[in-house]
Amino acid sequence: MVSPQILRGDDAETVLDADGIRIANRASRTEIPFVVVQEARPDGRQDVEIVLTDGAVYRVDGGNATAAIAFVTALTAALPEQRDPAGSARVVVTSLQQPQKERKKGEPRLTDYLGLTILGTFVLMYLGYAIWAGVTHGPEVILVIGGAVPFFSGLLMLLFAAEEVRLHLPLRKRGITLVARLDFRTTDGAAWYKYTDANGVEHSHRSKFRGPQPPIAYDPQRPGRASTDLVWGRVLFKVYARGTGGLLLFLAGGAVALGPLMPS
């Protein structure tokens, strides 16, 4: 079976795995075994209707049309030939208590400080070089060297923002969400995860997600491109912050670096 599929709607999450269907929202979790499902069908552009053998209907939000169709296809293929007419009688609904946020515990690891140590060392080396260049070649050289850092940093941030847009726009439009499984962790706190697409092809993805089974969305047209960052508001904020910050650094660094070189 492919990795368990997930439909992420506005107020609920629907999971299709080997055991059946789970629909979870803030208040409850509904578990529907395959044996009491009569059929699944698209309803409108991106919704899915799950019809039980007693005629009861569960309507879930598919997030997008591609994910909804993939969910219906996978669910239809998983249905057994013999069904139980009991229908809703075999559906289990569990009330969920709102979880409380836990404060992070434990001492920080050495790897948490490694990036800051490398960055601090680079900054000190750069400042030493800029001072030496100013003393030996005059103060105008310091402006050129100093402006190069924000200029290229801003350019890099703009490239990162463009890559976020190039990745997440297709996922927003047609992404299919699955449950990934942990492969191995790396020394920098990240981990590699595996997921299997609708064609049965296994892919690997590196993420900072720390859980053993994160939800992951992939592009069905390019199944190797995926993301575990599925909160659209957070993605937009990241693109906005990188884009505006990068543009300001790019323009300011260019003005400082090129100012001394421009004819008076």
Account of the 3D structure:
The chain is an alpha+beta fold. The protein has helices at residues 65-78, 110-137, 139-174, 232-258; strands at 5-8, 12-17, 20-25, 28-32, 37-43, 47-52, 57-61, 92-95, 176-179, 181-185, 191-196, 202-207, 215-219, 222-227. The chain has an eight-stranded antiparallel β-sheet with strand order 8-4-3-2-1-9-13-14, sandwiched between helices. Strands 5-6-7 form a three-stranded antiparallel β-sheet, with helices on one face. A hairpin with a 2-residue loop joins β3 (20-25) and β4 (28-32). The longest helix is centred in the middle third of the chain and has 36 residues, at 139-174. The chain starts with a strand and ends in a 6-residue tail after the last helix.
Structural class, from secondary structure content?
alpha+beta
Inertia-based shape: elongated
- Rg from C-alpha positions? 26 Å
- As a percent range, the share of strand residues is 25-35%
Order of helices and strands: EEEEEEEHEHHEEEEEEH
Helix content: 25-40%
Q: Strand sequence of the main sheet, in spatial order?
A: 8-4-3-2-1-9-13-14
Instruction: Please tell me the overall pLDDT.
Output: 80
Count up the helices.
4
Runs with pLDDT <50, length 5+? 98-112
* Extended strand count: 14
Main beta sheet strand tally, sense and closure: 8 strands, antiparallel
| CA(first)-CA(last) distance | 70 Å
Describe how the helices and strands are arranged.
Layout: E1 5-8, E2 12-17, E3 20-25, E4 28-32, E5 37-43, E6 47-52, E7 57-61, H1 65-78, E8 92-95, H2 110-137, H3 139-174, E9 176-179, E10 181-185, E11 191-196, E12 202-207, E13 215-219, E14 222-227, H4 232-258
Antiparallel strand pairs: 1-2, 1-9, 2-3, 3-4, 4-8, 5-6, 6-7, 9-13, 10-11, 11-12, 13-14
Helix pairs in contact: 2-3, 3-4
